Amino acid sequence: MAAGKPKIAVIGAGLMGHGIAQVFALAGHDVTIFDSVKPSLDSAKARILTNLKDLGDDQKAVERVTPVADLAAAVREADYVVEAVLEDLPLKQKLFAEIEKHVRPDTILASNTSVIPITRIMEGLRRRERALGTHWWNPPYLVPLVEVIETQWTTPEAVDFTMQLHAAAGKKPAHVKKDVPGFIGNRLQHALWREAISLVERGICDAQTVDDVIKAAFGRRLAVLGPLENADMVGTDLTLAIHKTVLPDIDSRPGPSPYLEQLVAAGKLGFKSGEGFRRWTPEQQAALRSKVLKHLKEARANDV
Ligand SMILES: NC(=O)c1ccc[n+]([C@@H]2O[C@H](COP(=O)([O-])OP(=O)(O)OC[C@H]3O[C@@H](n4cnc5c(N)ncnc54)[C@H](O)[C@@H]3O)[C@@H](O)[C@H]2O)c1
Hints:
Layout: E1 8-11, H1 15-26, E2 31-34, H2 38-42, H3 44-55, E3 65-67, H4 71-75, E4 80-83, H5 89-102, E5 108-111, H6 118-122, E6 131-136, E7 145-149, H7 156-168, E8 172-176, H8 185-201, H9 207-216, H10 218-222, H11 227-234, H12 236-246, H13 258-265, H14 282-303
Parallel strand pairs: 1-2, 1-4, 2-3, 4-5, 5-6, 7-8
Antiparallel strand pairs: 6-7
Helix pairs in contact: 1-3, 11-12
The structure holds nicotinamide-adenine-dinucleotide.
């Protein structure tokens, strides 16, 4: 690997790709970005600049981002390639097979898939030992976590390199040692969502009450107190006693809730149809989106 800051190539300039490029550019890396859709590629730098302005970050960082309309040219010099194209397994497999033809043998290859097993995406590569997953969260420049997922083939060196790369770029990398569905973050998140839906389905409370309870109680603490820290704080003995009483009554069905399936079948798709678990006017949707963004910006400002 060449001396100096690793050169980054980002494949896919959509919602996640342009944000990932922005993070690496702001951290001082030279970044090439490729997208097969011209308007998406052509607008990437303008979108990054808008974000940098909005966040009060160094606007000159955008000068380190180079959009490249040819995949081979985009990855040829790269030390690290991260893919953020559509969530489509054959597309990702095809892309990595093509990318591998043009990169050095030691270039690290990463996929930002949300849920596709990294093993499936990378199984066809000639050098599977340099491939892994990096699961960013939206928006990439505001949410600190990046899950670094190894497969059965990934070398410890590739994992270490990727962990250090992201830590040095100001992210909070988390090492996922086995390529399991949902990695860590989405397994935890959706364990909570399953019980949230179940509480509504069983008539214990309505959807707004579920959200109110979380936001007004343990949600307040979650950003600074993880569940296992919390368990230690209150005592593992108390945690055991609580689990003996509560776990038998918590939803443990292996599939999606029938209540959720009915909502989808009835066209109640959430914001996009105006109703999901609750009804949403366009004004309420906009207000909630901007509340989340404001919260994430304030949290980032507090981190610094
Ligand atoms: N949106 C999220 O919250 C989120 C979070 C974590 C991970 N992800 C994952 O990140 C990836 C990208 O998601 P997104 O939300 O940025 O999607 P997006 O639709 O905003 O962007 C995808 C981009 O890929 C481009 N593309 C399509 N085919 C291509 C090809 N053959 N070569 C190059 N570019 C191509 C599209 O033109 C588009 O610009 C997906 O795998 C998704 O599951 C998304």
